[in-house]
Design brief:
The complex is a heterodimer of chains A (about 700) and B (about 550). Chain A is an alpha/beta fold and about 700 residues long. Chain A has 23 helices and eight strands. Among the domains of chain A are: about 75-175 and about 180-275, P-loop containing nucleotide triphosphate hydrolases (Rossmann fold), CATH 3.40.50.300; about 390-545, no CATH class; about 560-700, no CATH class. The chains are: A alpha/beta (about 700), B alpha/beta (about 550). Chain B: This is Origin recognition complex subunit 5.
Chain lengths: ~700, ~550
């Protein structure tokens, strides 16, 4: 039997696996969840407990952002959830008369983007746990069936039947398994249903079978199950709810024969997919005027999300993962990120441990405003400055969002009227207007776009100008102006009103109309220029804004071969050294590497074919060196504990008490290590065996750019 | 006796007569009914005949059981279903769903042997019930054939037995010998006996009954007969909304005749034709009902029937809806959509008859009907998946040897040349002409080859749309990085689970690269290629 800890790695439905950490197989006794985030590169100027503080700040920021996004996802899915629930409830009403035989209702829900949340809402609604989408009156029983429950028809029928019977307890009766109906017999379910339907009074309740990951279920088995169930539809009001993830909508038609399909009445529903999700999530989270994320994500990450979303995985989980990683990266890079939400107390800053941090901060501030330098001991001034910078940043962000909304509405209007939109803006025509505008606003060069817009605005006709002025007034009037100074908005409003009144007084060919149009053009230029100031102009902007710092894409979508080679070349960059006995930090020399890496370095040095004996000799030289080195270390440190080094497999490392070690024994030891490392390389596919030349192997990897 | 069945199932008269005569007189032990076209109807007819035979009081009394081999997928289910149905036993939840028991309370669902005992016990029980009191004390010892009770067991879809329970096939065909009872077993199948016959003559030859495919006239009569039953079933809330009412019968006859004229060449299955009729009829008669409603001179209360439509109206309806019948068949026969949805989507507008004629025909035109093409459905895939599918199609279609020539980026661009296309049908060697791979179906390919082709495609067609690649300096390095990414490999697996790729090697084999086959058509690939601006025909070894 398979160990329950080890996942089924052949399961095609998974793109990644979680292999749980099993403490018993390693030497470490204590295993606590980490309470801090990875060390910053600028560790030397970090606060004493900076990592913990930043972790909690990260948690706050991410929870806020995630909560917002989940709300948006709920809104996105609401329509399809409602449809599905409605369909379930009315599956057996309004049946078309005149059909040759009753059909089995099958509802397929294609949900490739929104993740498990959709199904969760549906089931909790149908099971009567929640009543958000109008499913409160549903009288039904629901069984969850996973692909693993249906390996063959007997087990499949048993899982379905017991799954249903367990859900809704009716008086269980003692039964003798040998002389009564088998638990996989549908008649057994019918007998149960009769009793349950009697108990539940009134209309006949529905039985819903929810098949998760339907594509993974063997079609041959499922065919028979559909066949059996369809025969008893008149006695058992069964409904099959299929949860599918592939965006291909005709899966059933492709996979199942006509004879099966003719028994079913398939209704297809699909949750929103594609760019709709991405746009809604990003725009409503980071550019909504009523929601203020703790940190602002920069264009580099947005660009990466957009690219990865379109290229590899158009799902909500992708967006969540990337944004979470971006948050995590932001908080683990710069020690200053501790200021995101609030400033630590003066006492914390005044403690002597914090002095490098304070010095770095003060230097930074002093370069910004060189006029009034903050003296060394004025912590409150520092705190004030940071608080002020935070206020300024959020205000800047808010006004940028305002500008974006105005610009977007103008753009959409121009597009409706048939004008070219953001002509000359970077990446125009690549995606929707939304992304164009975001790129322009965050990309740091809005001036060109504003100029272009102002140019187009000059060409507007009288009616169009009236329309757009009306829209602008409505927009600015309706905008929440909490953070931004209300005065500016009042001013903008009054200007628009003035232009509108002016417009009503003049005719199309009038000179005064030209005046109004140019006034509008000037106004829009001025307004957008004040609003769309780059966020980088705010003091200490990098605390709240990730800017142009790139997203570490290799974390979620690494190139397998490149990572493999990098791991072999620089093992210590990948694995934290779990062994406390090994001298730290590790020098870059060859002898400190694990055996496989030593072997790999030599592999790279060789020509196309490798002589195994030469390889072994070179390996042996390194090991001799290593042995010598440990010997020296042990004599200098006089440490009694045996040394082990490298990754988990390197348990057979040299004993330092080498005096008693026999030379022949050492040779065998080296040979064994060589053979193991060789096999590891072989297993990674780096070696090809040919019988062409004795004692020779062929390299399979060339042209590795080895920095060392 | 069976005249009822004969009346209800036109076209099955001979079959009814034959079966009824057989069963009521002296049936052979093993009857094989073969029906290629309308097995469902034949099953129903058989059921009706048996029902009629078992209810009439005659000697011998007939008891029957009808079981399906798909529903009864294990031997135990088969035994239980047969015996419980024969004795008319319905397991109840209160009794713990116990099976029927004889007086001795023996277990009879364990194996064939115990099943035969169970059958005999059931027989004894039934003879007692039928009033033919046997000498029960000596019943077992005598083992004589009781001519007063006859058992008939109908096994539907016995071809499934061959796959799932092959060991039961021979005992079932010889059940009357084994049980030494007056018993007849009927196999009812779409498959011929020669295809499921066990080897070495282990089974006796059956008495063959072949049901001929139903003729068009039979189907028409059959469907029209159903109308009466439908009229009874459908609620008579408002006559203006009810398409099934007896006053519309003449129109329905006309409708069914037209429908069968159009659809009979494509399917002979009465169920399918009934399905299409069910989807179209409400829309067909709706204009007429609307007209009656608009006139308003029919008194609903009095239950007065509608006058039959005039010839002109009938012709007009036929002309309006005739084109939609083919559309209905096209959408409904492969079940691209279901009848209810189709009927809803293609309901004619209100008061169609009051519209001008040309407009009416237009208004009744069909809407899509969910005929989603595969190519359109693929549009939702992410960009990389589309490239993978194109690469897989190329790998499946082009011979492996041609890859270097097709995708190589050598110095000499002229080398990149396809095989000279020869005129089809002529070969130099005089052998049979080579068929294009595209027509032969996809060939399996190793994943490495597909990845390499993917690299070539990406380098040519995806280079400009990449987000950033400043860190890569060597030409092709970025592509090399892209094709090795985890996302690519995981999407290959995902496409396999969507059945857009087929994995031809078992998933538990570690040696060697996994092999795949492409499962999308040329047209679907072409649509993808157009979207990604890949010149597909230039990359095919055998272009179209």
């Amino acid at each position: 039997m398979q160990d329950s800890h080890i996942p089924n790695l052949d399961d095609v439905s998974k793109t990644s696996y979680y292999i749980p950490f099993n403490p018993s197989s390693t030497k470490r006794e204590e295993h606590k969840p980490k309470t801090s985030i990875p060390k910053s590169h600028f560790e030397d100027r970090d606060l004493n407990n900076g990592r913990e503080l930043r972790l909690s700040a990260y948690k706050d920021a991410w929870t806020k952002c995630l909560g917002r996004m989940q709300e948006i996802v709920r809104d996105l899915q609401a329509a399809s959830v409602k449809d599905v629930i409605n369909e379930v409830q009315h599956s057996y009403s309004n049946i078309l008369p005149g059909l040759p035989f009753p059909e089995l209702p099958v509802i397929s829900l294609t949900n490739s983007g929104l993740g498990s949340a959709v199904l969760d809402s549906i089931t909790s609604e149908l099971e009567g746990k929640t009543a958000i989408y109008g499913g409160e009156n549903s009288n039904c029983v629901l069984a969850h069936i996973y692909p693993g429950d249906i390996p063959n028809i007997t087990t499949g029928m048993r899982s379905i039947i017991t799954g249903l019977i367990e859900k809704q307890e009716v008086d269980s009766v003692k039964r003798k398994s040998t002389t009564s109906l088998a638990t996989y017999d549908i008649k057994y379910l019918i007998a149960w249903y009769k009793i349950w339907a009697e108990d539940s009074e009134g209309s006949s309740p529905h039985i819903i079978v929810l098949l998760h990951e339907f594509e993974q279920i063997d079609p041959l088995v499922m065919r028979d199950i559909f066949d059996i169930c369809s025969r008893y539809v008149s006695e058992l009001p069964l409904i099959f709810l299929l949860s599918m993830t592939s965006p291909v909508s005709n899966y059933l038609n492709v996979t199942y024969p006509r004879s099966t399909l003719s028994l079913l009445r398939v209704r297809q529903f699909s949750a929103p997919t594609g760019n709709e999700i991405l746009d809604a999530l990003i725009f409503n989270t980071f550019f909504d005027l009523e929601f203020q994320p703790d940190i602002m994500i920069g264009p580099a990450v947005f660009q990466y999300i957009q690219d990865y979303f379109a290229r590899y995985n158009p799902s909500v989980d992708t967006i969540f993962t990337v944004l979470q990683l971006a948050h995590l990266k932001h908080f683990s890079t710069d020690p200053l990120a501790v200021f995101v939400k609030d400033t630590p107390s003066v006492e914390t800053l005044a403690s002597p441990d914090s002095s490098p941090f304070i010095d770095a901060l003060r230097n930074r501030i002093n370069t910004i405003n060189a006029d009034e330098e903050i003296p060394a001991d004025q912590y409150s001034a520092l705190v004030d400055f940071v608080d002020d910078a935070r206020y300024k940043f959020y205000r800047g962000l808010h006004s940028m969002k305002l500008g974006l909304h105005v610009m977007l509405s103008l753009l959409l209007f121009l597009e409706e009227q048939g004008y070219t939109g953001l002509k000359g803006s970077p990446d125009s025509g690549r995606s929707s207007k939304l992304w164009d505008a975001m790129d322009v606003v965050l990309g740091g060069d809005p001036e060109r776009a504003i100029k272009g817009l102002a140019f187009v605005a000059r060409k507007l006709k009288q009616r169009e100008l009236g329309d757009i002025l009306g829209r602008m007034y409505k927009l600015i009037n309706g905008l929440a102006v909490a953070l931004s100074s209300a005065e500016e908005e009042q001013h903008a409003k009054s200007e628009i009103v003035a232009m509108r009144t002016h417009l009503t007084q003049c005719g199309e060919d009038d000179n005064s109309f030209v005046d109004v149009v140019s006034a509008f053009s000037t106004w829009i230029t001025g307004y957008l220029t004040t609003k769309l100031r780059p966020l980088e102009n705010c003091p200490l902007w990098d605390i709240w804004y990730t800017g142009l710092s790139p997203f570490p894409s290799d974390i979620i979508n690494p190139s397998i071969r490149a990572s493999l080679v990098a791991g072999l070349l620089q093992p210590h960059a990948f694995a934290e050294n779990l062994d406390p006995h090994v001298p730290h930090p590790i020098s870059g020399s060859l002898r400190d590497l694990p055996d496989i890496s030593i072997l790999f370095k030599r592999y790279l040095d060789s020509s196309k074919m490798i002589n195994v004996y030469d390889w072994f000799e070179s390996f042996k030289t390194v090991l001799e060196d290593q042995r010598q080195h440990y010997k020296e270390l042990s004599t200098t440190q006089a440490s009694a504990s045996p040394r082990k080094r490298g990754k988990g497999k390197q348990k057979a490392s040299p004993q330092v008490d080498a005096n008693e070690e026999d030379d022949s024994k050492w040779d065998i030891h080296v040979q064994a290590r060589f053979v193991r490392a060789l096999h590891e390389l072989d297993y990674l596919g780096l070696i090809k065996h040919t019988g062409r030349k004795a004692d020779h192997l062929v390299r399979t990897l060339f042209d590795v750019d080895d920095a060392q | 006796m069976a005249s009822d069945a004969m009346r209800r199932y036109p076209g099955h008269e001979n079959f009814c007569y034959e079966l009824e005569t057989l069963l009521s007189n002296h049936p052979p032990g093993f009857i094989y009914i073969h029906d290629l076209e309308a097995i469902r109807t034949t099953t129903r007819v058989t059921g009706t005949i048996l029902d009629a035979l078992s209810t009439t009081s005659s000697s011998p009394a007939i008891f029957y059981a009808q079981v399906d081999c798909v529903t009864s997928f294990t031997a135990r289910l088969l035994y239980e279903n047969i015996v419980n149905t024969l004795v008319g036993w319905e397991p109840r939840w209160e009794d713990g769903c116990a099976n029927w028991k004889d007086d001795l309370d023996t277990r009879w669902n364990e194996n064939m042997d115990s099943f035969v005992h169970g059958l005999r016990a059931a027989h004894t029980h039934l003879s007692r019930k039928a009033g033919a009191v046997m000498d029960t004390g000596k019943g077992k010892g005598k083992a004589g054939v009781n001519s007063d009770v006859r058992l008939v067991i109908v096994i539907e879809r016995p071809e499934r037995l061959k796959e799932t329970l092959p060991e039961l096939l021979v005992p079932f065909t010889r059940l009357s010998e084994l049980s030494r009872l007056d018993l007849s077993i009927i196999f009812l199948s779409q498959v011929g006996w020669e295809d499921i016959k066990p080897p070495l003559g282990a089974s006796p030859d059956p008495y063959y009954v072949d049901v001929p495919p139903p003729s068009k006239e039979d189907i028409v009569r059959n469907l029209i007969l159903n109308f009466a039953a439908l009229c009874e079933d459908s609620p008579s809330s408002s006559p203006f909304n009810n398409p099934y009412q007896s006053s519309l019968k003449s129109l329905y006859i006309h409708f069914i005749t037209t429908l069968c004229d159009v659809c009979y060449p494509f399917t002979h299955n009465p169920q399918e034709l009934q399905y299409v009729a069910a989807a179209r009829w409400p829309g067909f008669c709706k204009p007429l009902l609307d007209q009656y409603k608009a006139c308003g001179d029919i008194d609903m209360e009095s239950g007065e029937a509608f006058p039959p439509p005039t010839n002109d109206v009938r012709m007009r309806l036929t002309k309006t809806f005739n084109p939609t019948l083919t559309a209905a068949l096209e959408a409904l026969l492969p079940r691209l959509t279901n009848a209810a949805d189709w009927a809803l989507a293609n309901a004619p507008p209100d008061d169609l008859l009051s519209l001008p004629r040309a407009q009416g025909v237009q208004a009744a035109g069909t809407q899509g009907g969910g005929a989603a093409q595969q190519g359109a459905a693929l549009a939702a895939l992410p960009r990389m998946a589309k490239f993978i599918l194109i690469a897989a199609f190329l790998a499946s279609t082009n011979p492996a040897k041609s890859d270097v020539r097709m995708f190589g980026r050598g110095l000499d661009e002229r080398k990149r040349k396809r095989r000279a296309t020869r005129a089809p049908g002529k070969t130099r060697g005089g052998g049979p002409s080579k068929v294009a791979q595209r027509l032969l179906g996809p060939a399996p390919f190793a994943i490495d080859r597909m990845i390499a082709i993917l690299g070539a495609l990406l380098e040519e067609n995806d280079f400009d749309s990449r987000a950033s690649g400043k860190q890569f300096k060597i030409p092709g390095e970025h592509t090399d990085m892209e094709i090795g990414r985890v996302g690519v490999f995981s999407y290959v697996m995902e496409l396999t689970s969507m059945r857009l790729l087929h994995r031809t090697t078992p998933s538990d084999r570690l040696d060697g690269p996994p092999q795949f086959k492409c499962a999308i058509s040329y047209d679907a690939t072409l649509a993808l290629a157009k979207e990604l601006k890949v010149a597909l025909n230039d990359l095919l070894w055998d272009p179209l």
